[in-house]
Automatic annotation (TrEMBL):
Record bears the keyword tRNA-binding: no
Protein name: Fasciclin-like arabinogalactan protein 1
Topological category with respect to the lipid bilayer: Lipid-anchor; GPI-anchor
Region (Disordered): 366-386
Residues annotated as signal peptide: 1-23
Low complexity bias spans: 366-375
Organism superkingdom: Eukaryota
């Protein structure tokens, strides 16, 4: 009971702390200030920019290009650099005025490094002190003892100073320039890259076990193609089990390489948040687009159209329209959404009477007929002379998928 309450509370707090739609775009704001271009570049590269954008209240301690170049000279790995930069994102609002009017002249404030849970103890907190003569300093809280014996610029005692206010949107976003990078041994400790998303496991947990099974069974290796985008950006639309089941007969009639293509068609080589899908309406290229291009099949573009739909998101091909049901994974640079229908590219699914002149009433009727029978596999059975062969192969894949789903359920 108590655990439930805590969970509820945690959820409520998480919701309060993040805006439903991003209120501002730190990347865009900083792009108007070329002296912060390196800092801006690394905010994006480490995906901290979107973490900042999701906050209702945040203060970014920006470093100019020369301060960034000193930081980069330390050759930190990207996950470590992310921790260091996260230390520069305070989860409270500090405009220039507030910085110079701190109650009792000092404040301890939490950073995104602290918020990620990667910071042990009080590390991840930043000490702000308003010194004599309006000189404001920032330093990372540090559990390690001061050690100034190594002859180099020491980190523990070094603090960074307020330079100027860059942008203030009271009381949501403040960007202030500080003179040098904050440092703490904890933030600079070698950081492991976050555990990679296990796509098939996540899908299986969210009602897409059959689709996960198809990915595992596909040849050539589709899962491999998906996973090769895990670091650089991937959005997957996985049809729920009921949709895959209803689509079974059609899938069964595809050749193995067409099945692989269909599965590739359900992923994009870029990260898209739900918000981006809603607002960035337009044509989406897919992993199948890339595969077709690699084979120089220029006529086959394997795209679909994404658009907002009554507060949700719809995915339209010329053959069918699917809707997003829920978010399965949103862990930039990877997003997975479940959808209510299998996406059908026009490159693979045509009206059976392909010979009819395009645009004729017969073609339209045929298209309509081909469009509807997802739930009526018996209509399809008679339509295809390859049915027996296709169905057999499909059946095998189906068995594998079912087994995979069963395993997933047991886990
Ligand atoms: C600013 O923050 C407040 C809460 O602190 C929030 O209610 C408001 O929506 C935010 N404004 C914007 C533009 O995000
Ligand atoms: C933020 O702005 C940058 C640069 O203007 C743009 O490339 C990016 O897509 C924007 N991000 C969002 C989430 O709108
Ligand atoms: C911040 O550090 C100074 C020493 O530099 C210390 O006097 C002050 O108490 C600290 N502030 C807080 C809130 O811990
Ligand atoms: C993903 O999870 C499944 C179990 O659901 C497991 O069999 C598989 O090895 C995992 N893959 C990776 C790459 O960890």
């Amino acid at each position: 009971m108590r655990l439930h309450l805590l969970l509820l509370l945690a959820t409520a707090m998480a919701m309060a702390a993040t805006a439903p739609a991003d209120a501002y775009n730190i990347t865009k704001i900083l792009s108007a200030h070329p002296e912060f271009s390196t800092f801006n570049h690394y905010l994006s590269l480490t995906h901290l920019a979107s973490d900042v954008n999701r906050r209702l209240t945040v203060t970014v301690l920006a470093l100019d290009n020369s301060a960034m170049s000193s930081l980069l000279d330390r050759h930190l790995s990207l996950p470590t650099l992310r921790n260091v930069l996260a230390l520069h994102c305070l989860v409270d609002y500090y405009g220039a005025k507030k910085l110079h009017q701190l109650t009792s002249g000092t404040a301890l404030t939490s950073s995104l490094f602290q918020a990620t849970g990667a910071a042990p103890g009080t590390t991840g907190f930043v000490n702000i002190t308003d010194r004599r003569g309006g000189h404001v300093t920032f330093s990372a809280e540090d559990t390690a003892a001061d050690d100034a014996d190594d002859g180099t610029t020491t980190t523990a005692s070094a603090s960074s100073s307020f330079v100027k206010s860059v942008k203030e949107i009271p009381y949501n976003l403040s960007i202030v320039q500080i003179s040098a990078a904050l440092s703490s041994p904890e933030a600079e400790a070698p950081a492991a890259a976050p555990a990679p998303v296990n796509l098939t496991a996540a899908m299986s947990r969210h009602g897409c076990g059959l689709f996960a099974g198809l990915l595992l069974a596909a040849s050539p290796d589709v899962l491999d193609a998906y996973e090769s985008n895990l670091d650089t950006g991937l959005t997957v639309f996985c049809p729920v089990d009921a949709a895959v089941r209803a689509f079974g007969p059609k899938f069964g009639r595809l050749k193995p390489d067409e099945r692989a293509t269909l599965l590739l068609y359900h992923a994009e080589a870029a990260y898209n948040s739900m918000q981006q899908l809603k607002t960035g309406s337009g044509l989406s290229t897919t992993l199948a687009t890339a595969a077709a291009a690699a084979k120089k099949k220029k006529s086959k573009d394997f795209t679909f159209t994404v658009g907002e739909d009554g507060g949700g998101v719809k995915l339209e091909t010329e053959v069918a329209t699917a809707k997003i049901l829920k978010t399965v994974v949103d862990q930039e640079p990877v997003a997975v959404y479940s959808i209510n229908k299998v996406l059908q590219p026009r490159e693979l699914f045509k009206p059976p009477e392909a010979g009819a002149p395009a645009g004729s009433a017969a073609a339209a009727a045929a298209a309509a007929a081909a469009d509807s029978p997802d739930g009526a596999p018996d209509d399809d059975k008679a339509a295809d002379d390859n049915a027996a062969d296709g169905r057999l192969g499909g059946g095998c894949v189906w068995a594998v998928a079912a087994a995979a789903a069963a395993v997933a359920v047991m886990l």
